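Summary for the steering committee. The consortium agreed at its last meeting that each partner would contribute one worked example illustrating the joint modelling workflow. Our contribution is presented below. We chose a case with several input lines so that the handling of multiple components could be demonstrated. No manual editing was applied between input and output; the record is shown as generated.
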Amino acid sequence: MLRLLSFALFLAIWWIAALFVGGAKLPSPPAVLNVIVAEASSGALFLHLGATLARVILAFVLAMSLGSAIGYLMGRVKLADRLGDPWLILLLNLPALVVIVLAYIWAGLTEAAAIAAIAINKLPTAIVTLREGTRALDRSLDEMAAVFAMPRWRAFRHVVLPQLAPYIAASARSGLSLVWKIVLVAELLGRPNGVGFEIGVAFQLFDTPRLLAYSLTFAAVVLVIETVLVQPFEARATRWRPRAA
Amino acid sequence: MRLEVEITGKTFKSVAGGTHEVLAPVKFALQSGEVGVLIGPSGCGKSTMLRIILGLDRDFAGRIARPPEARIGMVFQEPRLLPWRSVEQNVRLAAPDITDAKLSELFRILELEAHRSHFPGELSLGLARRVALARAFAVEPDLLVLDEPLASLDDALAGRLRDEIATLVASRPIMTLLVTHSLDDAIRLGDRLFVLSARPARIVQEVPIAVPRAARTEAELGRIRAELAAVQLESK
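What follows is the complete predicted structure of the assembly.
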């Protein structure tokens, strides 16, 4: 209810602002809705959203799995941490644009280059978060598992993984928002479809309604995925914690 | 089955850079069916000794001989349960082969039936301690190690849990090693007491208790207590 109210407030402010600024710079909500409906009925909207979503999923899964594995290794093995740390600092501070441009130059304007570039941008934060999580693992529980001779996999699954789950959820969450942002840049620079490509086209034509139509549907998709997938996972991962009163 | 402990020394480096001797040479052995008690002042190195015996700490001089196939059940000083698993899952994870009947029996003895599906965060310390005991017994250990299992519990509860430990120990021929600083626990549960000195720990005296656990009357316990008090006076 409160959420609906805050959404209504947002619409109202938008509408009023549109009246003052004028339709060319800030089109009113109905104008944008018209574009959304038109794009949806032609199928273009779903094509571009689908393309972007597919890139997000691939890059996200790639970065999360690779980043978690490397982060865990660096948290557990001192040598890996020492060797990997300079690379990590470099990757963390490398601007997304540099990675994307280089990827396109080296691998051509291909799908693989785009996905790899997005994944590389997300990778270091996943590593850092999981490394912190691994460092914070409770050694006394490791000892318990060792004394009771738990097989490695069982100990990992029941002793280690639940401790990492909040870190994985945090990393997934921040990572997803990072990927959402970067994927559009990658599409703008070198892909013939996707929300980023459409926004690029709208920019060149100064077509603000189209720009807003694509950005807002994209934002809506992000919101839905956050509420339907990310938040329930977080809640499940922390369900054993006593609730705050 | 037999456990032989022969530690010739253990030092550890502090953050400040100094080396500290934690354990002096310590040697003892334990047979199946025996309850050995390591008793000594707080901070004398008992827990360090346990970690060495359990194979968690390999940085020491000496040797530990325990049959490699020996199953270990351990009750740590803190319960060390998995907070994200229920009571029953905690026990089953350590002892995946336990039958439903045996598990029910164990939960009945330790009065945990009502708490099977609770998470450790919902339990009092006394209950969590009992779950840790259930877990240690559920693996049907050959070597049972109890590190201050009754510390910080009130007397009545400690007494009841002590009786439960005695019952469970009597039900199977296992080697049991109990670490405590409570003389009372030591003489009620132990067959052989190893009295430790202050740090660096060494065995001041080995005191066998010949009277079977069940037959130890209050008078008998008083006699043993007096005997031990004399030993401890001598060692000072």
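Strands of chain B lie at 2-13, 19-23, 26-31, 35-39, 61-65, 72-75, 143-147, 175-180, 192-196, 203-208. Chain B touches chain A through 26 residues (CB under 8 Å).
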